[in-house]
């Protein structure tokens, strides 16, 4: 085992979020425009390069890998990558392999994911109303997603539902969503939104719904017990005394977890973000492609981690940060 990745504030980096594609089969209003221009294939890391990169991180102490996108399951051949990562679970070097998905491809891949050692997944789902689901995702079908979630349960996967809180859109579903998750045994996390994407005025739902307000509304009907749970993500958790279910809240711009932040994020082009709320980025694709040996790559990773800040600062455009973070959180919540 190599020396672990320790940042300047003595935090061990043990959690890596990896975007394996910028593509998605949905076009959610707060995330993407309808006519997206995607990256040329040559800019994307190959599945073999993703394996090499993730393996380097695992060798330096990363114990949790969360696979994200876009929609990770639309990447051609993606299960070869999951199968490759499963060897690190078998060796004990990796403690958890998980993913965040829109659920559209779960009927096809849930059993295979479970066979690769995936135990739990996050599914982004903002409404249980089929017409509203079609509206917010533009291209999505609710029935397909619900069937995918059912397939995940059949395969033994634990499902956490990530709901982006949208004022005037899913406010009236707060208790329905909570009841559905309680009934089916899903954890539930609400994510605060800052509008993104190609939101023409006709779609601008004046969406910002403060989680403080959402939480207060929950408290009108339920007894909320604060939990000390830490899943390595940015969520704060409560338990509803009446149902026993766990509910999380992610507010992108807060500093909830900066002091104990153990995670970094890798894009599908090999850019490493040391902090979600900062623009500092390290290019790992160049050293990866410069040599078949990993020495240069590993030194680049160490140099990047040495720049990890103590927490986010918002000296530059808050809106830029808010947008980036909402989009990221909505696809990769905790």
Number of helices: 10
> What's the SSE pattern?
EHEHEHEHHEHEHEEEEEEHHH
N- and C-termini, Cα separation:
27 Å
Q: Pairing-aware structural class of the strands and helices?
A: alpha/beta
Provide structural commentary:
The chain is built from ten helices and twelve strands. It is α/β, with parallel strands linked by helices and about 325 residues long. It has one domain (about 5-330): Aldolase class I (TIM Barrel). The chain has a twelve-stranded mixed beta sheet, sandwiched between helices. Helix 1 (about 45-60) packs parallel to helix 2 and helix 3 packs parallel to helix 5. The longest helix has 15 residues, at about 320-330. The protein starts with 14 loop residues before the first strand and ends with a helix. One of its GO terms (molecular function) is metal ion binding. Belongs to the radical SAM superfamily. MoaA family. This is GTP 3',8-cyclase. Its EC number is 4.1.99.22. InterPro entries: Aldolase_TIM (IPR013785), Elp3/MiaA/NifB-like_rSAM (IPR006638), MoaA (IPR013483), MoaA-like (IPR040064), MoaA_NifB_PqqE_Fe-S-bd_CS (IPR000385), MoaA_twitch (IPR010505), MoCo_biosynth_MoaA/MoaC (IPR050105), rSAM (IPR007197).
Which tags fit this structure?
cyclic pyranopterin monophosphate synthase activity, rSAM, TIM Barrel, globular, iron-sulfur, twelve-stranded mixed beta sheet, alpha/beta, molybdenum cofactor biosynthesis, 334 residues
